[in-house]
Amino acid sequence: MTDPTNSVPAKSIDRLLRPSSVAIIGASATPGALGATVLANLEQQGFGGDIHLVNPKRPMIGSRQALGAIDELPSGVDVAVLAIPRAAVLDSIRALAARGASAAIIFSAGFAEGGEEGLAEQREIARIADAHGMVIEGPNCLGLVNYVDMIPLTFVETPSVPLSDRQGVAIVSQSGAMAAVLAVTLFSRGIGVSYSISTGNEAASGVEDYVEYLIDDAGTKAIAMIVEQFRQPRRFLALAEKARAAGKPILLLHPGKSSAARESAATHTGAMAGDYALMRVKVERAGVLVADTLEELGDTADIVATCGIVPAGGAAVLTESGAFKALTLDLCETVGLPLPAIGDHDAPALRAALPPFVPVSNPVDLTAQALVDPDLYRRALSALLDDDRFGSVVFAIIQTDAATCALKFPPIIDAIRTLQPAKPVIFAGMDDGARVPPDYIVALRDLNVPYFPTPDRVFRAMAQLNRFAARDANVAAPAAVSIALPAAGVIPEHRAKELLGPLGILFPAARLARTPAEAEAIAAELGYPVVLKAQSPALSHKSDAGGVIVGVGDGAAVAAGWARMQASVAAYSPGLVLDGILVEAMGKRGLELIIGARNDPEWGPIILAGLGGVQAEIWKDVRLLPTDLSRAAIIRELHALRSGALLEGFRGSPAMDVGAVADMVLALGAVLEAGPAIREIDLNPVVVYPDGEGAVALDALMLIG
How far apart are CA 249 and CA 283, in angstroms? Predict the structure, then answer.
């Protein structure tokens, strides 16, 4: 419900997150009641500010005096926590605004998610907040916990885990339950949390407001987010760029990957560029790491909080099993974690560190030799840390039992302490469930080495972090072009080609005919064979209506094709009047791609490229490309298609002119940037020829407005 053009001032967020006075509306002495738990949390954590209790029926709550009404509160309370039923919330917000309260936290549900009445009340809450400069957290939220100053403003019982003098992970989540779950995950690993903020329905403050505040917060090292809907997408992208520049990673879990893609009435592009895929490309381009599961969000947050930003480059793995070495190679190939190959010829330091019977490889199988030669861990680790091919090192160690741990952990811990690695080192136990003395895990974490119970989780998290670090952050500004757009609506093929042709999109020679005689004359001029295409804004997919005839070989065939096409279109859509029939030179066959463009109203411009033709929506082998990618980056993305082998030359076929396709993508991106009123452009198929022979768009369709 937040206004996408507005943001909440940082000083207002500061008073919400770091209040010196708190009012509990609906304070209670009943154990388990929301208001009672909020008060108990504040007292147990030693909140040193003023606490004001409001309860019209009880003048005393425990040993504290309670006020009978909000009107009796002192002016300018920092935060009011509303632990009251929904029916009383709106009047309470009005009263708090009149008393000059700076912020309010609303626990109650049943607003926008509860129907029209609740939605109307939520909108009124937002209006009041805007008019009085209030920050509203919620409604339908669990509140927040400030672990920097240990201020819990939540009805969830809060353990005392102050951040103290370290940096931590800030949690910003629309789901209060998931925020609490993630906090428990991080605390269980000794990871500090700076703030945990549940935004709920976001009536008058949203995730973007808190991210903006946290980017400048000294106690926050990284921001972990669980967001189901960005209400201010373009603002979030700008904030993500700012966070990246500040060296403060944003880690995101966004439920909704499997939701149906938004449909478009006109083009393949709209149907194929689904909401989640578009969001993911945009936020990743802005520097956000997107996790696929809640576990992965916790694991990546753990590694980032402990080791910092993991550098690009593959991982080296130290293990003790030949079979596990093969399993590691299989899994890392599947998840996309590079494991640079090494051997005796190019890793002399590692060769010197290992016994003669242990081959040099990655993963390195140390066998059981370290049990009799504990210094082997240090020698092998030192060689791998000095090798520039590796950005990180993973210990995948068999733990078995306390006795075995006593043989392995001390030399590994001593090696890490001695070497003081500049690269991330991660420890993974191979036998989940082994009883590992907790002192060893604490010792590893004290050395900034995360501990995981399974290697699989490490490899999946490291694959995400490696992709995050290796992304191309170079920005190429689209070429400046000028385009005069017609009125809103569907722009048929012949008109779309007239608009796009001069801007760098190559099409076959063609002209629009309005009579059979004109069609025959144009065909004779272009040279046979030709293609006939029915033209109308109401005929987006011409082939469905029999509106395309290929291989027309002479004047008689043109006349017959004209008559047949008119009859087919009339049967498909009675009363439809064609603009005419496009007569187009028929080119040679090649590999068919689709290239589309879309100006999403929330996220902005995006390009789609992939396997094309009439089956494009079936295969959905596409890549979504930001408009500011360089030509080289576009070529890399095209080769990353599942069908990318077809571009490279498959089974003796020639390599395709991928550079010409990249040039078409660049031209389309420039058009999209120059015409914000363009909703979508669809070029399908785009026929690409062998290297050096170019690419031609056979069809074009535009949607304006």
Answer: 12
Q: Convert the pLDDT of each residue in 415-462 to its tens digit.
A: 999 999 999 999 999 999 899 999 999 999 999 999 999 999 999 999
Any residues with CB less than 8 A from the CB of 73 and at least 6 apart, and which? 23, 52, 54, 67, 80, 96, 99, 101
Taking Cα atoms as reference points, which of 128, 127, 132, 208 lies closest to residue 172?
A: 208
Q: How far apart are the first and last CA of the chain?
A: 24
β-bridge partners, 67: 54
Average pLDDT of the residues of the chain: 92
CA distance 378 to 381: 5
Residue 674 CB neighbour total at 10 angstroms: 16
Token pair belonging to 475? 């920005």
Selection from 329, 390, 389, 400 nearest residue 363 by Cα: 329
Res. 269: pLDDT tops 60: no
Q: Residue 495 has which token pair?
A: 């008109």
Distance CA 612, CA 526 (A): 26
Burial tier of 366 (Cβ tally within 10 Å: 0-12, 13-18, 19+): buried
Nearest to 252 by CA among 189, 208, 202: 208
Exposure on the CB side of residue 297, measured as CA atoms within 13 A: 29
Order of strands across the sheet with 79-82? 60-61, 64-67, 50-54, 21-25, 79-82, 103-106, 135-137
Q: DSSP class of residue 690? A: B
> What whole-number distance in Å separates Cα of residue 34 and Cα of residue 152?
13
Query: Measured between alpha carbons, how far is 298 from 211 in angstroms, rounded to an integer?
Result: 18
Check: CB of residue 455 under 8 Å from CB of residue 503: no
φ/ψ of 63, rounded to 5, equals -95, 5
Distance CA 695, CA 551 (A): 20
Residue type, 669: G
Distance CA 60, CA 55 (A): 9
Distance CA 426, CA 460 (A): 13
The pTM score is: 0.91
Residues 440 and 414: beta-carbon distance below 8 Å: no
pLDDT tens per residue across span 61-93: 989 999 999 999 999 999 999 999 999 999 999
Question: Two tokens at 249?
Answer: 């990673």
Cβ atoms of 84 and 113 closer than 8 Å: no
For 624, the enclosing helix (H) or strand (E) is strand 622-625
Q: Which residues contact 415 (CB under 8 A, 6 or more apart)?
A: 377, 378, 381, 382
pLDDT at 187 over 90: yes
Query: For residue 136, which of 10, 4, 14, 13 has the smallest C-alpha distance?
Result: 13
Greatest CA separation for the chain: 101
- Residues 6 or more apart in contact with residue 496 via CB below 8 angstroms: 681, 700, 701, 702
Residues β-bridged to residue 393: 316, 425
Q: For the chain, give the number of residues.
A: 705
Following DSSP, what letter does each residue of 92-114 receive, concatenated? HHHHHHHTT--EEEE----SGGG
E-assigned strand segments in 416-508: 425-429, 451-452, 489-491
3-class SS shares of the chain: helix, strand, coil, % to 5: 40, 20, 40
3-class DSSP assignment, residue 571: helix
Q: Which domains does the chain have, with CATH numbers?
A: 10-255 (3.40.50.720), 314-470 (3.40.50.261), 509-585 (3.30.1490.20), 591-704 (3.30.470.20)
Region of residue 486 (left: phi > 0; alpha: psi -120 to 50; beta: else): beta
Distance (Å, whole) CA 468 – CA 605: 22
Q: What is the mean pLDDT of residues 41-45?
A: 96
